[in-house]
């Protein structure tokens, strides 16, 4: 089935842009900034480079030392072990299905060299295909929370309905560029069948690119197979249309379910993300330089495995740095030290010439309150300033990633909008210097009505959909709402007016038939 | 009167450090990070340089064009006009007490050259004296709000009691380095006597450095005279012990009350801050490059006046960039475009080799909610990343600077603590690379108990006094508080345990006598 059958010829006219032009002028509605809407961001601000050459080399050398002297442990995947052995790794068998592999200095880095520095992930709406790498940057919803948090603090297990609602919110904002993967865990669906409903929901309720399953190699295969139905096999064979988001088992372990999943995606020429989830002081040194070295070492090994599987397969270096409340042992997120670490990971990724996934709107708060956004912005500024390309966890993150929140999702999305303005940078030209605005009235004259103001005011400043700009008196008369209550109104209105993007009926039926068949083939499993 | 009489010999042992060592170990109390406490920050992270040389030169040339072709309007201060005329300005009389002065390209910049790139403001507790300029950075409370905002949204006029309470909060946190000036307007005190109570309150309830009055030249003189009582005339004659925070009347006007105030401080060898308060699209071009050029032009003129008055007098270049809700005409704060402008102002200040005041914890929100901290961090990250030296508005700012909030004050202060950790940067050494932590247990082993963790955990991560790190269950059992409610508890507890720093009785009496005499000399004036 050819991809042109299902793709409306919308290239250059993505849904969001069309909506922007249908709306009345800026003066009528909040939160519309059509001039900032893009399928992916092209970063116009420089990266914020924290460390000098010498320090970066020391971190790279430490990563090499980890790989050469301590090694990586592999479990339950002799094929992967054999591939690394053939590539030059020194294998030591530790048990029945456990091996340690050490790598000569520079070997793993050399194996990463065939991975593309930049690639395209094709979306079913081609106008929403995204670039990953270089100066391209995309914001992607959060990933992996089992719970939903209500604004009153109630916490409950997430369901498929929550999963689909979050997809609809991501589809409806111009400030997220990708539908993500396990936006929350649909815990009402059996574990071994969950991936089918998740992939289908991404396809059905979004026309963005998305991530597939990684919890078992056969689920990865199902995810890719569903893409063959959606895109046609030719397209899948020649493009990256789906990716898997894989975690190492830090410190320094890659387990077999994961490495087999990585190989499944790579064999199909699909993309993968290689993430060490590093809780400082728990699974990585409590000092950030050590976390950076370990993160680089573990992530490069994942990338190297993709290249041994299929040279040129898209792969993303990744870093998730966090700190710990060493009083309680609880992880903490959105703190200053990991923000610095993220800046360094950006430098390291550029030196190895790989796309980077890094940081996001992290928070430990249980409510979408002042703490949640203070921590999120601290974390997210590092993500964008380090030049990360694939910014997972850009929307919805609360409770140390244990919970998603609809309110936080739209607050974060609005921040992502502000970051679209930030990442455009500051243009210096005769027109933006605007001396004519000053000349027109001269000293002491206000500029509301100058020709320069009239030419620029509609596009001068990002207009938030959620922030309250009103004078106190107007805000008081309007009921004194806070950001959380506005966020509740916002997400509920968005869902009420949501319309699914068109999907070819024949494809829809074929996907549903595939899912039914796969579900019939196995008993429900709940863990 | 010698300064040693009133200064306890505390150099090297500031109050805060002493308190840190008296406290039990980290495991017992939240929010104690004695290893981060300093009288002023020495920035260890690089500045985030947004623009290239060519763009910076264009902004500087635009500033020169403004000064050479449009000129600055001066009002009600013929002495200042005469000083600029003698220095080479081209004066055009516009009215009885109004003049336009144009300046040859480069003239104003050349006049700024004698201002010190870095200087010390002496505090009455010498251990709390601050450095201003270069890689030194201080956080200073907000300035100028007439109102106080309660957590329920009630807004009321601020009083002297509020003013003193805010001073006590600033005195009690290790994360603010200066007592500020008009932290709020004590509206229950007559306008013409307010400055006496304000300066006295700074002296009485804080041992930090502080700002004096700028609302009239004679009030500036009173402020300096009170410093002579406090420090002794010798100290005042030879040091910067007080500063005035002056605003131009943008666009492109310096009024006589202000220029006479600037001259009053400079004549006494005291410091001054030269701030264009630029509301985008209202009093400055709606495009940020133009705002930067205008900000530079107006601020340099203020600095130049100090140098004509007394070469070598301390002076601070300043920038306050904001945007506007062009639908309502309301100013907006904490938005992305002014954050970019702040980064540029940092570059411009370094090129002219002057200390910079820039940005702060800006917000338009009426509550200390998610919006307030999202905006604040966006703004504040630019302040610290641009390398600003004197960061006014670091604590308390809500409602577009119309209102102060006790809750926001402590939330902001806690963020300033996190920024102390951020500004220390990321150290790369064998010890911080911590390979021994990874070697000790090897792959798969947790690191809670490694020797490396034990050596570093107490100082590894900033410990917030306000953020909730607990698991949801514990937070739920504890009553589900939000950041705002924790902030209320925090500031009330701080005030309950506040102790005034010691002040010599004779000085106290002399200050009170001076105030009484000055108050008796004039009728109350309320505007």
Account of the protein in words:
- The structure is a homodimer of 527-residue chains.
- Chain A is of the alpha/beta class and 527 residues long.
- Chain A has one domain: TIM Barrel.
- Chain A is 44% helix and 15% strand.
- In chain A, strands 10, 11, 13, 14, 15, 16 and 17 form a seven-stranded mixed beta sheet that branches. Chain A has a four-stranded mixed beta sheet with strand order 3-4-2-12.
- In chain A, helix 6 runs parallel beside helix 7.
- Chain A is globular, with a radius of gyration of 24 Å.
- Chain A starts with a helix and ends in a 7-residue tail after the last helix.
- The N terminus of chain A is likely disordered.
- At the A-B interface, helix 3, helix 11, strand 15, helix 12 and helix 13 of A face helix 3, helix 11, strand 15, helix 12 and helix 13 of B.
- Chains A, B: GO terms for molecular function: methyltransferase activity.
Quick gist of this model?
Chains A, B: Belongs to the trimethylamine methyltransferase family. The structure is a homodimer of 527-residue chains. Chain A contains 20 helices and 20 strands.
């Amino acid at each position: 089935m050819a991809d042109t059958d299902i793709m409306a010829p919308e290239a250059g006219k993505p849904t969001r842009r069309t909506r922007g032009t249908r709306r009345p002028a800026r003066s009528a509605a909040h939160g519309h900034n059509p001039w900032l809407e893009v399928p992916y961001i092209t970063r116009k601000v420089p990266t914020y480079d924290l460390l000098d050459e010498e320090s970066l080399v020391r971190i790279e050398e430490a990563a090499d030392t980890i790989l050469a002297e301590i090694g990586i442990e592999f479990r339950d995947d002799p094929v992967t072990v054999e591939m690394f052995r053939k590539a030059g790794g020194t294998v030591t068998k530790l048990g029945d299905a456990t091996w340690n592999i050490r790598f000569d200095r520079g070997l793993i880095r050399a194996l990463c060299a065939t991975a593309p520095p930049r690639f395209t992930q094709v979306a079913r709406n081609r106008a929403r295909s995204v670039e990953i790498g270089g100066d391209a940057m995309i914001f992607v919803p959060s990933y992996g929370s089992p719970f939903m948090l209500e604004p009153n603090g109630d916490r409950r297990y997430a369901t498929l309905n929550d999963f689909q609602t979050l997809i609809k919110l991501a589809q409806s904002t111009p400030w997220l560029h990708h539908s993500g993967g396990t936006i929350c865990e649909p815990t009402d669906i059996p574990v071994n069948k969950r991936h089918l409903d998740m992939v289908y929901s991404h396809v059905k309720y979004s026309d963005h690119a998305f991530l597939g399953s990684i919890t078992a190699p056969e689920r990865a295969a199902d995810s890719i197979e569903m893409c063959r139905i959606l895109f046609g096999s030719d397209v899948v064979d020649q493009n990256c249309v789906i990716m898997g988001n894989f975690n190492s088992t830090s410190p320094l372990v890659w387990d077999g379910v994961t490495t087999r999943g990585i190989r499944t995606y790579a064999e199909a020429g699909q993309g993968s993300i290689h993430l060490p989830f590093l809780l400082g002081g728990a699974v990585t040194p409590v000092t950030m330089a050590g976390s950076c070295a370990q993160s680089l070492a573990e992530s490069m090994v994942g990338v190297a495995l993709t290249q041994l599987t299929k040279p040129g397969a898209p792969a993303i270096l990744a870093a998730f740095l966090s700190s710990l409340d060493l009083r309680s042992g609880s992880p903490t997120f959105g703190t200053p030290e990991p923000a610095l670490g993220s800046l360094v990971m950006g430098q390291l990724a550029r030196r190895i010439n790989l796309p980077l996934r890094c940081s996001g709107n992290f928070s430990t708060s249980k409510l979408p309150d002042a703490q949640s956004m203070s921590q999120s912005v601290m974390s997210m500024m590092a993500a964008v300033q380090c030049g990360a390309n694939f910014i997972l966890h850009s929307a919805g993150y609360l409770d140390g990633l244990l919970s998603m929140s609809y309110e936080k999702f739209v607050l974060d999305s609005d921040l992502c909008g502000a970051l679209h303005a930030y990442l455009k940078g500051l243009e210096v030209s005769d027109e933006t210097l605007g001396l004519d605005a000053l000349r027109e009235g001269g000293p002491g004259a206000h500029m509301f009505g100058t020709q320069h103001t009239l030419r620029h005011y509609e596009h001068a400043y990002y207009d938030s959909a959620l922030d309250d700009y009103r004078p106190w008196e107007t805000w008081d008369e309007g009921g004194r709402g806070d950001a959380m209550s506005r966020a509740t109104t916002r997400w509920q209105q968005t869902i009420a007016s949501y319309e699914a993007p068109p999907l070819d009926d024949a494809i829809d039926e074929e996907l549903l038939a595939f899912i039914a068949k796969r579900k019939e083939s196995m008993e429900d499993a709940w863990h």
